[in-house]
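User: I'm preparing a small set of examples for a lab meeting where we compare how different chains pack in three dimensions. I only have the primary sequence for this one, and I'd like the structure in token form so I can line it up with the others. Please keep the answer compact; I'll paste it straight into my notes.
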Amino acid sequence: MKTVVRAGLVAILATTLAAPAQAATVKQVTSTCHAGEFGGTFTLRYETSGGYHRPIGSITTSGPYIGDSGTQTLRISYTDGLGTHAVYSWTGPAANGTQSLPSGLAIPATARGTASTKFDNGTTSCTATVPIT
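Assistant: Understood. Below is the structure token output for the 133-residue chain.
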């Protein structure tokens, strides 16, 4: 009886203490754009796990702007055998710095993903694009 109980406990512990799932790998990709004196830098941070790339944040710097006339547009999408799919889109005032992205964004790791930020100072614009691989 003790042997059966001991064997059962060993089996339960072996199942419970199995190696943890592989931790997500965080990647960071950067691109710049220029239009005359105006320019921008866009960095996307994303993690890869469970067969998906998951965008988690961005860092932007751009300028010069005249007053508060600047805007930024962020678009994240991917292309697979069925076409191009929009994952996320945001347009708002130019905000240099770090921004978090909503949770739940996912791009299949087998697809070809891209993220781009269009910087616009009211008279000139440029777009920085990064791959998500």
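A couple of notes for your slides: The first strand starts at residue 25 and ends at 35. Strands lie at 25-35, 38-49, 52-63, 71-80, 83-93, 97-100, 107-108, 112-120, 125-132.

User: Perfect, thanks.
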